[in-house]
Specification:
2 copies of one chain form a homodimer. With 310 residues, the first copy, chain A, is α/β, with parallel strands linked by helices. Chain A is built from 9 helices and 12 strands. Among the domains of chain A are: 88 residues, Winged helix-like DNA-binding domain superfamily/Winged helix DNA-binding domain (Arc Repressor Mutant, subunit A, Orthogonal Bundle), CATH 1.10.10.10; 103 residues, D-Maltodextrin-Binding Protein, domain 2 (3-Layer(aba) Sandwich). The interface between A and B is medium-sized, with 30 and 30 residues. Chain A binds a DNA duplex (30 and 30 nucleotides) through helix 3.
Chain lengths: 310, 310
Amino acid sequence: MIDPRLITLRVFARCGTVGATAELTGYSPSAVSAQLRELQRMLGMQLLTKDGRGVRLTATGRFLVSGSDALIAEWERLRAAAMEAGDQVQSRFGLGGFSTAAAQLLAPLAAALRSTRPLLEVQVLEANPARCFDLLVAERIDLAVIVAMQSDTYVEDDPRFEQMVLLDDPLDVIIPGDHPLASRESVTLEELAGEPWITEAAGSTYHSLFTAAFTAVGVTPRIAHEAVEWETQIAFVGAGLGVGLLPRLAPLHSAENVVRLRITGKGRPSRRIVAAVRRGSIASPLVQESLGILQSSAQRILTARPEDER
Amino acid sequence: MIDPRLITLRVFARCGTVGATAELTGYSPSAVSAQLRELQRMLGMQLLTKDGRGVRLTATGRFLVSGSDALIAEWERLRAAAMEAGDQVQSRFGLGGFSTAAAQLLAPLAAALRSTRPLLEVQVLEANPARCFDLLVAERIDLAVIVAMQSDTYVEDDPRFEQMVLLDDPLDVIIPGDHPLASRESVTLEELAGEPWITEAAGSTYHSLFTAAFTAVGVTPRIAHEAVEWETQIAFVGAGLGVGLLPRLAPLHSAENVVRLRITGKGRPSRRIVAAVRRGSIASPLVQESLGILQSSAQRILTARPEDER
DNA sequence: ACCCATCATGCACCGAATGTGCACGGTTAT
DNA sequence: ATAACCGTGCACATTCGGTGCATGATGGGT
């Protein structure tokens, strides 16, 4: 409904380069360039300036982008209200999510939607949280299940999004089966302060979560190895290379020589899993139904846990 | 920026038939039909129902149309603000107006804009007030100078428009030169109650104004003849067929045997001339400049009048 | 009751808008 | 200096969207 060129401009405002905008929106770089040029022509505004080998938003461009938040939200609100009033649903629904954890919530959701609305075209995109927000802006997806972080990519009251907490997923410790603490039921982070830690690369989604967990208890861990996938990390731990943190929702499968321990003590790290939609679309019947399914999934996960860990 | 199909739907909501919508928007009926069908498909909503030999908005359709007022206004606001922030103006500007009176304000405006902004493409459309509002909705014009009436086509606080009073244009009486009262400087409507009146056809723009003038003083005039153009009405009066009301701004030219008299007494009928724009666009630099020009034109007209008639 | 006016819509056709892929020029980093 | 990167222009293809005409359906006029 809103001119797709404006959406493209908004995506550009997020990622800053034409190439990245093209990748996110699904267009070619030439198309993005042409769209932005056409947008400027039709509005009679100069929105971009050359900046080195790239382009940059002008003040007018930034103004337009930030002001368009309200416009987009207004449209989403209107569409949602009309959908509800007319008791109708759209034909396409894009879901985004990250990692195995989100998959545990997204997969049931997609399956449920597929059964209740057989003629609804559901598309699931796996992407990290930051990219999920990008995809929401680019209107490639309509709902994202992501891990909230206290980084700059996550702002509670962003005018572009509305968010809803689904559950807090505690982090466990995984240690080699032959580790002295392997027979324990739970440990504190302080007890593991001296261990060689395995985590993701700095700047990654979970690295900030990792450091946040330790700064909370005032310990500085020694990072020995880095792994991208959970599976790799688990394998490293099984090989006795060190210890690591693993979200409760991430399955250990049949990992050899790896033990999962609860963390006790004052530092009880967890990651917050939230659902995010474009602002205004929260009232849409499909979003409402999806949120309900997600919440019941989350509830089911929570009730399966011991009383004191909810 | 807003999908033109939604604009088309809004125009349809005003005039009710595909054909009229096509005429107003400048499309062919087939195009309007296709657009509305495509709009329903892309939104997944049923907006129209067959109704006899025509089509009618569904409840969802009406909801969407009324809700879209805020969306359109939001966009106009954003564009206006960005224009102002970036100190830039659009390339096209459509003006609408009615009758000779509005032309006296519109022509100077168009001329002034043409000189101050040489590369601005100014288009003037003559149309009656109701059609001017339609053209505003259809985005064919951006500013209209119309005669405010207490009919259903004019609502003070319509969510789609913003209006601004320019001036009140008093109505004069025109009578034949050989009429007993022709030597008077002013008359009251009561004095002319028994005369045969000449007016426009019932339902026309000025007929309601005409009747309103007489109901204000409690007189029911005898309507003897009907004329569409001022010129015709003046000629009728000159031929001694009756008397009529003529707005001050309508020139009498060199009409033979016709005298224009001021109206005094408690009923001092006048028509209110207002400028109208789409809601939100009032802050646009071009609109601001136009309103300034219109107001100074109005001021010039007012100062040319005797003190007691302003 | 018949006929015609009116209205919306489907279809064939056409043009313009908009996409892609590739090559090029300018800019920064190594 | 060279290579990598980024944006953009150009040729080309495709698709979207509009027109004009014919058709079907409905309701008012006589």
